[in-house]
Amino acid sequence: MVQKFDLAIIGGSFAGLACARSAALRGLKVVVLDAKPDPGAQVRTTGIVVKEASDEFDLPARLMRKVHGVRLYAPDDRSLDLSAPGYFFQASDMPGLMRWMADEAARAGATLMYGRKFDGGLEYERGVVMGDIHASFLVGADGARSRVAEHFKLGQNRNFLVGLEIECEPLAGVDDRFVHCFADSKIAPGYIAWVVPGVGATQIGLAASRPARLDLGGLLKRLNPHANIRDIRVLSRRSGLIPSGGVVNKLGSRRVMLIGDAAGMVSPVTGGGIHTALHFGRRAAVLICEHLGARGIHPVDALVREAPRYRAKLVLRRVMNLAPPNALINALLMTGPMRTLAQRLYFHARGEAQESFAS
User: Fold this and answer.
1) How much of the chain, in percent, has pLDDT values that exceed 90?
2) Tell me, what's the pLDDT at 350?
3) Are 69 and 355 in contact, with CB atoms under 8 Å apart?
């Protein structure tokens, strides 16, 4: 028997679940399909939520932990503390947060089908047919290597960072006031390595421009002066691709649209995509609801106009892909101009303002 929906969403992570909840609250009949067995499985992100996302969305404090500063390390281990008054990041319990978002979408009225893989579909004038499911509109929120984008011949991500992370029991010695970032072209060429004092765990990871090799062992050696890694107990491992080429060149068609990582809505410099996933997930729901219910502007046309351009960040990404030698990073990182650049990358328009971390 054919099940009919106003909106089908492929992918049950930040973008897909934000879209599902908002669309269901607005009265659309919504279904979410995801190949994962449950919402908290196969997590592929560190889960750092920026303040802008916390201000815009109500996320449960019990699954979050505020971190107020960034400590940036040069290859020679000199460090720079960055902060801004009133600003913070939130480390998160990602499996728990995904399950909470799924529960919220279901409570709003969305139907969630986990363990169901997208195997293609047929787009026609009035919607999309996928086996026993018919939807008036389809949203692809299925990650960096979107099967929706490939199947419907939409824009696809071509440039990536590759990331690797371990989650371990809380490490003694890690200053939990900071997200610790390591600029080192030997262990993370083209990007950074990081240590995040998270929610009941410490996350240790790194990413690099493809096809560079990641050196997790080198990162762990770097941590020796800063944390007790002798008795490290790894709880989980994750890896994945991070789009780094900006928004894809074709965001949708008549009845299909991409959002989140599938659309390349990820900062080419920082790799951050949670805020844009939440924002454009919800925005896509509003646009689709207005289009289906009130003959509003086509949602793809509206999304193309609103999508981030990342012009300056794409230029900086090309520079970072060159993986400057560590001697050059050592020489430049602590200078005034580089401090200003780092301050703006991490804290946006908050300029030079600093919060004191004196003990």
Assistant:
1) 85
2) 52
3) yes
Q: Which amino acid is at 108?
A: A
Residues 6+ apart with CB under 8 A from 76: 326, 330
pLDDT (tens digit, 9 = 90+) per residue, 267-296? 999 999 999 999 999 999 999 999 998 888
Q: What is the DSSP string of 207-269?
A: EEETTPPP-HHHHHHHHTTTS--TT--EEEEEEEEEE-S-S-S--B-SSEEE-GGGGT-S-TT
Task: Judge residue 2's burial from the number of C-beta atoms within 10 Å of its C-beta, 0-12 exposed, 13-18 middle, 19 or more buried.
Answer: exposed
Quick check: is 103 in a domain?
A: yes
For residue range 27-40, list pLDDT tens digits in order: 999 999 999 999 98
Cis peptide before 37 (omega within 30 of 0): no
User: Rounded CA gap, 345 and 316, in Å?
Assistant: 11
* 3-state secondary structure at position 94: helix
- Tell me 27's DSSP state: T
Identify the domain containing residue 68 by its residue range: 61-91+160-244+322-350
CA 249 – CA 322 distance, rounded (Å): 24
Average pLDDT for the chain: 93
Residue 25 has, within 13 A of its CA and on its CB side, a CA count of 13
pLDDT of residue 295: 85
Q: What is the pLDDT of residue 105?
A: 98
Confidence of residue 349 (pLDDT cuts 50, 70, 90): low
Do 23 and 119 lie in one domain? The reply is yes
Query: Which whole-number Å values give the CA distances from 216 to 166, 196, 270, 291, in the listed order?
Result: 9, 15, 19, 48
Q: Does residue 219 form part of some domain? A: yes
Q: Cβ(165)–Cβ(46) under 8 Å? A: yes
Is residue 356 in a domain? no
